[in-house]
Every structure is written in structure tokens, then in C-alpha cells.
Design brief:
The chain has a six-stranded mixed β-sheet with strand order 18-15-19-22-20-21, sandwiched between helices. Strands 4-3-6-7 form a four-stranded antiparallel β-sheet, with no helix packed on it. The chain has a four-stranded antiparallel β-sheet with strand order 11-10-13-14, with no helix packed on it. The protein is globular. Helix 2 packs across helix 8 and helix 5 runs antiparallel to helix 8. By secondary structure, the chain is an alpha+beta fold. A hairpin with a 6-residue loop joins strand 13 and strand 14. The protein contains eight helices and 22 strands. Bound molecules: zinc ion. Zinc ion (ZN) binds next to loops.
Length: 434
């Protein structure tokens, strides 16, 4: 039996079409690597790189299938062999390359001094990484150990004056916004060590002007799910219901990117806000920052107080089955507020209008099993919504492919555009817009 299975597996593998090998042109510079390649028919590819000092992966996007760019390898100053692997959107390896990175000669040879003391270590967050400052009299260099969930490297730094003051900027290109960075200052032998922690900055895009368009007159409330702060607030599960439920701090975490759901949905919410305002809609948001706390009923209240016609609640999904993918939309079922909005078939139809536009926008087949509309009583904020309310699970962060896509600005933009088209369809269906 085992032999038969093995034979079947071999036959199956032989039947699969061989993947074309992508020719990757790599050009190396000190602490930098330039890449150039073409992958016909693929808008997204995943690039992984690795050398003795640094490793990482990034999702790349190209409109015309030609990819060219640079990887900043700040800590690879000693040079050495760097390997590059390319995968397509189905995570099959489609190309490999390797190149010798030259050492950066501008770094002086450290002498080491184990007697120094490190004082006044301060870190300031920036969207790129952090700014450090400290004082270490007598040191001709120090080492910065930079660590986050996505990156880990050591960087030599040099004093800016004769008093042993150190100050400079470090970029951590693969570390995402609102991620904790731990920085240790040590000498060559690791004898002195001082640690500090800071968060990588997040810069919310400035609010644009409302442009006249097909959504003029429409008020949309965007509710980016979850948040940074944790509180246990007990709230009735729906209007008139005695059963209460606590807000839970649980949220999805990207299995590959290690990104938090609360940050991914905030990024997409900002793109959705700008896309709606560009077409005439008035937008209110339940939160615009990460470091806050808004309860579920408060989220529904913000939408009601703003006179919102539609409430979109943005989330990302999580499953123990790592191959689960797709967009799912949840609508409230038995709450009296939901029943006042529409009967269930009508509510479901509106959800389907939204889902179809989103699936079209990201390239999912409309009949493929990559999304459904479901009614339930599980979500307090939805049960309390007094307008059409859709809780959208925009993809599975437990699936490597969707986790990588959800982190990418272009895919986020596609999701936002799909939601704008869906909101328009729902508003026309409701008779709010012509
Ligand atoms: Zn969620």
C-alpha cells in the first residue's frame, strides 16, 4: 500500500508542469543589494534573502511584471555571500540567485575597550526605525544589538565627538509599525551592556479633502477592529438582551509577517477612508490610532451619532487550518436593531453585493469558495448597529499567502477599492444614492 501511494505521488509530481526558472539579475554594493527580474503574469512575488548577518523576506508588487529595486542590508557591513529566493503567489519557488556582497571599507577596525560605561541611553521612535543617543567616555566604537520580531542584527556605531557622545539614526526596514524594538549597547567583548525599548513609529496619513463624486451625501463609518490597549468591559450582547459579554484582547497575528491584526486593519481603514472621500463620502472612524481603547457598543454609538448610513467593521481572520483563505462577511441576525434595518434575506443580499465587489477587486473567482456572507449573533458591535453593518474578515492571517498579501500596500488598496464599489452598490440598493 505504501509503495502504491509513493508511486502515485511520483506520478502526480511528474504530471505537474515544470515551473519556469526566473533569471534574477543581482548587483551588490556595500550594505545594499539591487535586484532586477521579470515574472510574466505575476503581480506579486515573495523575495527572501539571507547572509551571515541578516535575513528577511518581502512581498513585491509590479504592474507590468518587471521587478527592480534595492534591499537595504544595514548590518551586512562585513560583506559575504547573500542568497536570494523568489516564490510566486502560490509560494512555489520560481528562481534563485546568489551574490558576494563587498565589505564596507568605511567601517574602521574596532579596537575594543571593556572599561567603558554607557550612560543616558535614549531611543526616539521614527517611522523608519529609531534615533539613538548615549554617552560612553573613552569608547572609540560600540555595538548596537537591534532586535524586533521581524529583525535581528548588530551594528557598529562611532562617537560624534571627543567626549564619547554617540548619536545616530538606524533604519529597520522589515520591522512593521507599532512593533517593539529592543536595543542593547555593548562593546566588542559584550562586557558593558545597556538595554532600552521603544516602539517603531506609525504615521497616520493626513486626512484629505472630500472631492465631489458618486458617493456625495453618503456618510460611512469605518470601524478598524481591535486596538493596542486592553480593558475588560462587560456589555449587553444586544439591545434588550440581558446576557453580557466582555471585550476580549484576542486578535489575529500574521503567521509569516508576525504583524498584528489591529495594525493591518488600521492601514486598510486609512486607505478606505481616503478612497471614500475621493468619491464624495463623509467618513467617520471609530479609531484612527493604535494606542487607544474603544468598546464594542461605543463603536456602534460612534456610527449612530455621526448619522452613518453604513458601518463597515474591518477584521482579519485566523484559523487552525492554515490552508483556509478568502473574504467572509458577517451580518447581525436576531437583534431588534438589525431587524429594523432589513429582513434577513435583504440584509444578506447587501452583504453579497459588498462581497462580490471585494472578491472582484482582489482577483478571487466569484464562484470559488473564497468567501460567504453569514448571519450570527456573535458580534456585540454589530448587534447594536442601527444601520446596515458588515463585519468583514478580509483574509486569513493564519495563511502565509494571505498574510503576506494583507501586509502589502497594493493589496490593501485593492481591498479598499472593492469596499468602495460595494458601498456604492449597497447605497444604491437602499435608495440612499441614485
Ligand atoms: Zn478581529
Amino acid at each position: 500500500m505504501k509503495k502504491l501511494l509513493l508511486l502515485l505521488a511520483v506520478l502526480l509530481l511528474a504530471a505537474l508542469p515544470a515551473l519556469a526558472e526566473v533569471e534574477i539579475t543581482l548587483t551588490a554594493a556595500p550594505c545594499r543589494l539591487d535586484y532586477d527580474f521579470t515574472v510574466p503574469g505575476q503581480n506579486f512575488v515573495y523575495l527572501t534573502f539571507k547572509n551571515n548577518y541578516q535575513q528577511g523576506s518581502m512581498t513585491l508588487y509590479s504592474e507590468d511584471y518587471h521587478y527592480a529595486g534595492s534591499i537595504d542590508l544595514v548590518s551586512s557591513y562585513k560583506g559575504g555571500l547573500t542568497n536570494v529566493t523568489l516564490q510566486n503567489v502560490h509560494l512555489q519557488t520560481i528562481g534563485k540567485g546568489r551574490i558576494e556582497l563587498p565589505a564596507d571599507e568605511s567601517y574602521p577596525i574596532p579596537t575594543g575597550n571593556s572599561d567603558v560605561r554607557v550612560q543616558n541611553l535614549k531611543l526616539i521612535e521614527t517611522p523608519e526605525g529609531f534615533i539613538y543617543s548615549f554617552n560612553a567616555p573613552g569608547a572609540d566604537f560600540m555595538l548596537l544589538d537591534c532586535h524586533s520580531r521581524q529583525e535581528d542584527f548588530t551594528l557598529p556605531v562611532y562617537p560624534i565627538d571627543d567626549e564619547g557622545n554617540f548619536m545616530g539614526k538606524v533604519t529597520m526596514p522589515l520591522t512593521y509599525a507599532r512593533t517593539q524594538m529592543t536595543i542593547s549597547v555593548c562593546n566588542f567583548k559584550g562586557h558593558v551592556k545597556k538595554d532600552a525599548i521603544c516602539y517603531k513609529g506609525y504615521e497616520a496619513p493626513a486626512k484629505p479633502e472630500i472631492q465631489p463624486g458618486r458617493l456625495s451625501g453618503l456618510v460611512v463609518c469605518i470601524d478598524p477592529g481591535h486596538q493596542e490597549q486592553t480593558k475588560f468591559v462587560s456589555e449587553p450582547r444586544g439591545p434588550g438582551w440581558t446576557q453580557k459579554s466582555s471585550t476580549t484582547p484576542g486578535m489575529a497575528l500574521g503567521t509569516h509577517t508576525l504583524r498584528r491584526e489591529s495594525i493591518v486593519v488600521l492601514e486598510i481603514a486609512m486607505k478606505l477612508r481616503d478612497a471614500l472621500m475621493a468619491e464624495g463620502a463623509t467618513v467617520v472612524m471609530t479609531r484612527e490610532i493604535q494606542d487607544t481603547f474603544v468598546s464594542n457598543i461605543e463603536r456602534a454609538d460612534i456610527a449612530a451619532n455621526a448619522g452613518a448610513h453604513i458601518l463597515l467593521r474591518l477584521h482579519c481572520d485566523n484559523s487552525s487550518q492554515q490552508n483556509r483563505t478568502g473574504i467572509n462577511i458577517y451580518i447581525p441576525r436576531d437583534s431588534e436593531y438589525a431587524k429594523a434595518v432589513a429582513d434577513q434575506p435583504t440584509y444578506e443580499h447587501m452583504g453579497q453585493l459588498l462581497l462580490d465587489q471585494m472578491k472582484t477587486a482582489v482577483g478571487y473567482d466569484l464562484i470559488e469558495h473564497t468567501g460567504v456572507v453569514r448571519a450570527n449573533n456573535n458580534y456585540i458591535g454589530s448587534n447594536w448597529a442601527q444601520m446596515p453593518c458588515f463585519l468583514i474578515e478580509m483574509g486569513f492571517m493564519s495563511n502565509k499567502r494571505e498574510d503576506l498579501l494583507l501586509a502589502h500596500p497594493t493589496y490593501q488598496q485593492w481591498l479598499a477599492e472593492g469596499m468602495v464599489n460595494g458601498i456604492y452598490d449597497v447605497a444604491v440598493f437602499r435608495g440612499i444614492l441614485q
